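Ticket #4471: structure output looks truncated?

Reporter: J.K.
Steps to reproduce: submitted the chain below (358 residues) through the standard prediction queue, then opened the result file.
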Amino acid sequence: MGRLNNPFPQCPSYALIERNATLFADPEKEPSMTERAFPAKRDLTIQFAHVAYAFAENFAARDAGIAHFQTWTPEDTLERAHEADVLVVSGFWRPELAARASRLRFIQVLSVGYEQFDLDDLRARGIHLANGSGVNKNAVSEHAMSLVLSFTRHLHLGRDDQHKRRWRGMKGEIALREEELGGKTLVIYGLGDIGARIARLARAFGMRVIGIKRDVAAHDGSADEVRPPEAFLDALPQADFVVLACPLTDETRGLVGAEALAAMPARCRLINVARGGCVDEAALIAALESGRIAGAGLDTVAVEPLPETSPLWDMENVIITPHTGGETALYEENLFDILLDNLDRLQRGEFPLRNQRT
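Returned output as attached by the reporter:
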């Protein structure tokens, strides 16, 4: 069988058909995983893997015409991985899954972070991966601002007093009173979907926002100023709040350590809705205990769950939430929007995918 004459050279779908017709013309040649056309929806099976969210049950309500099932433990996920063409996963991922999942063509990561995946290995196996960027941008950005507001309005102290049945009197000393956000400066590291929305929310409260971003030319106007990562330390002396909204990479691991904490003014509070590894926790504890900085709002920590022996638990100037910044009643629906968009693109042979990483 000769090469097909393509009357529609600009049509990616036709090009995909042409390529696969050529491959299957040779009965002796078994196409590799990277060469096979993506299965039609009627032939797909999706495996959802999560410990708590009922993804499969909620996906059924979409009536997408795609077979699917859910596994609730890492062990069951590994055991049934060979049944799936598409794996929707995050914390249950293990490196051995790639070899066990013989049919796997696409991984839709449930979360924004994807540092647990060996991208080079997935590329070699012809497995596409897209992360969940944007799935919880509203939740995380609102969580970050909630932590900011908790500090300025002393909500955490009010809750402590409530548990003690204590009605606090008015404070005469100005430095001990609640604060207002207008006129304060927020330095935010990371201006992706989440960071840009935090910046817009902060500016709505009258804050001045300095954003740290690798590509300063691609700024969307959400911050008052945008500076490159190498200017992060120079921006810190101006900060009333420092918010981390970046992925964990080689460049951001230990981003806030002794040097960065020393550059912050004593009034500054650190808000981490990124990853615990972005902060040198020992240096942070020392800075909090010494009064070097005023406080920290931590949705993520280096070791999760936070060990019972950590001094962070007992610090009045620390607010801890158990990595719930991304939790939202709309999580499943937001994720399905991304997943179905990517499946449509894969079946059309249209790239890049939404949030594509391999």
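Triage note (M.O.): checked the attachment and the full token line is present. The radius of gyration is 24 Å.
Status: closed, working as intended.
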